[in-house]
Amino acid sequence: MAISLEDIQAAAERIESAIIHTHLEHSTTLSAMLGSEVFLKFENLQFTSSFKERGALNKLLQLSEAEKQTGVIAMSAGNHAKAVAYHAQRLGIPATIVMPVNTPNVKVEDTENFAAKVILSGTTLHESADHARQLAMEGNLVFVHPYNDEVVITGQGTVALELLAANPDLDIIVVPVGGGGLISGIATAAKAIKSAIRIIGVEVAAYPGAYNALHEEKLPEKGGATIAEGIAVKQPGELTLEIMRRLVDDIVIVNEETIEEALNLLITIEKTVTEGAGAAALAAVMAHPQLFQGKQTAVILSGANIDSRILASVLMRRLVRQGRIVQYLVKISDSPGTLSDVTEMIGDLGGNILEVSHQRMFGGMAVREADLYLTVETRDAEQSEEILNKLQASDYVAEIMQKEFIQKRNR
Fold it and tell me: 10 Å Cβ neighbour count for 411?
């Protein structure tokens, strides 16, 4: 089946009543920062917090009555799972979801809340898919693939219809790439409507499958854990790869740190939460600004299903990198009044002490000496340095533990 614009337009009509037509908003602040006219497509505001609803619903609505009675099975790292489970529950279709064992708890729980049967199997999506196919054969279930399926791809392509209806003058659409379903659907629709538009995909550095397939250069496929687990796919599907080779203009790579920075910017500037994969498109604009200078650029915020612990860690790590949370090591005499002298000095300079720890038993210090570790919240890196200078001027041997890291980040 060759996917056409007409197929995607039909899908849009089919799913319209149960899918949120998400906003495309111009970001004045991000545009000024990045030198591109940045427009954000808030697919993270779908009911299950990702674009995956579009393809899943399009697939479920085209099942036969017999298939609806027997049920469906899917494999997913989370967003496709939630989408299939939610719309299957809404339509009265039994659903089983196979998820990798390292799937964030929030995605597992949310999927189970939609009455789906969740099975944790495999350390990768490939292993989960093998198990799901086996169960599909044993139970005569319809296998709903997250990306290598024409009907699913067609549903995902409805994003492009909304993009170009909202802003026909777009020059570039930036799309996160895992298995390639979203970018394949978007490229099919967007290129049919506006042939000159550029479609740029983005992958996380540990999973450059699509990049390697479209470039002569071969990057190492490290795999493993990533903050962008939603696009942690080793290889795109056969169907999606064929479409990408024809219609996608480029695939770029971003690292973990840039994705964290993008996620933080979206929270602090746009007041919107995304998962790592959902922030990957903005990370691409940040990491490769030369591709987007002066262009009207649509950035797909593909999902928001992030574990709260990971989100908290990202925000705190960002404060550390900015020098706003620092750890001081101060060599002190282990005598009354010394601790209060140090803490009073920090307080007088506006530092907020978050944690204090004495170390007396380890290391080569004398018996009447101690290492004092203080975690301090400051206004910025300059204030952190001011506190350090004051401690040293008061004859304390002191240092900032992560100072080299902060200086590297600020260069």
Answer: 5
Distance CA 145, CA 151 (A): 10
The pTM of the full predicted model, rounded to 2 decimals, is 0.88
Which one from 27, 49, 76, 302 is the annotated catalytic residue? 302
Q: What is the Cα–Cα distance from 397 to 385, expressed in whole angstroms?
A: 14
Which residues are CB-contacts of 139 (< 8 A; sequence separation ≥ 6)? 70, 71, 73, 96
Residue 85's domain spans which residues?
54-146
β-pair partners for 172: 198, 297
- Give yes or no: 331 in active site: no
Q: In what order do the strands lie in the sheet with 117-120?
A: 117-120, 95-99, 72-75, 142-143
- Residue 222 a catalytic site member: no
Q: Among 27, 36, 49, 52, which one carries the catalytic annotation?
A: 52
Cβ–Cβ < 8 Å for 371, 331: yes
Q: What confidence tens digit (pLDDT) does each residue in 290-331 have?
A: 999 999 999 999 999 898 889 999 998 888 888 899 999 999
Domain holding 360: CATH number? 3.30.70.260
Judgement on whether residues 141 and 167 belong to the same structural domain of the protein: no
What residues pair up with 41 in beta bridges, in sequence order? Answer: 24, 300
Same domain, 194 and 287: yes
